[in-house]
Amino acid sequence: xxxxxxxxxxxxGSHVHPGLTAAGHEVVAVDLLLPSAHGDYAPTPDGVHRVDxxxxxxxxxxxxDADVVCHQAAVVGAGIDAADAPAFAxxxxxxxxxxxxxxxxxxxxxxxxxSSMVVYGDGRYVCPEHGTVTPAVRLTSxxxxxxxxxxxxxxGRTLDWALVSEDAPLRPRSIYAASKLAQENYALAWxxxxxxxxxxxxxxxxxxxxxxxxxxxxxVAAMFRSSLEAGRPPQVxxxxxQTRDFVHVRDVAAVxxxxxxxxxEGFQPLNVCSGHPSTIGRIAERLAEVHxxxxxxxxxxxxxxxxxxxxADPARAADLLDFRAAVSLDDGLAEFAEAPLRDAVPxxxxxx
Length: 352
Known about the structure:
Blueprint: E1 2-6, H1 13-22, E2 26-31, H2 35-38, E3 48-50, H3 56-64, E4 68-71, H4 85-106, E5 110-116, E6 124-127, E7 131-133, H5 140-144, E8 160-162, H6 175-194, E9 197-203, E10 205-207, H7 220-229, E11 235-236, E12 243-244, E13 246-248, H8 249-261, E14 267-272, E15 278-279, H9 280-291, E16 297-298, H10 315-321, H11 329-336
Parallel strand pairs: 1-2, 1-4, 2-3, 4-5, 5-9, 9-14, 10-13, 11-16
Antiparallel strand pairs: 6-7, 6-8, 12-15
Helix pairs in contact: 1-8, 3-4, 4-6, 7-9, 9-11
């Protein structure tokens, strides 16, 4: 098949591209090469067209010839503050809307969308007495006092986390999360209007070679790596017991290849995760063990809007795409501790 791949030079896109090619697909690779992600003077890689997905005229001829669009292009990260909102909305939401309009006009009816677990906001919690409950947003006063766990709204007990399925309520808590949910909503509406199919891959915490080095928009695993390389202890927020699912970028590339090769009807969101959750503290400890260097420092600091636990149910992706993560967390982190990272880039905000 002929696949239009957006964001082809990014951290994930640069792994998806060779995966699609190895699977026998003809790939048309595009990327805007935003300075906030690639540096101010990034050259256009061989085989990649410099295209802004917000430019419908540039997209039109590429979409007309595509059997499926694999949409990875996005401004990523939690954002620094509200000043980032226009860039996230422009690149992620407006860009996706322009792409979908071009697909509708050009007759392309299949989309594989890079979404994110951030659309869930907080995870799923279970009270020993009351079953599944929705905790209130954690209070700043509690966080400042070192009270990090979510509590039952009925009796105040500490809640246990449970697996989040794709049918969970969507409650984004950051600018980035709001933009990813908007992408999903546009894609769902496009699917209903055109009869097209959308596979929305909700990535959990992706890590691996080629991650950008320490920037305000980098993932926590890369930030830990950057600290270790600089001889500093990794800085672990809260008490380090917050839980996530870390999935290796090779597995993320593999699920994209599977999604391109298996058309699903309508709009289908799928968790992309390893199925083996870990605490943030353990991630920092494992990287320090393998890389060598200072032991992690558990700081007690926190970021407003951070969630305590969000751990995914991998069953639906296994059922519909026969996808199961192949890289174990221990092996992946051991590899990542020495893997090449993307050269440091300016820490400026994304530009509209």
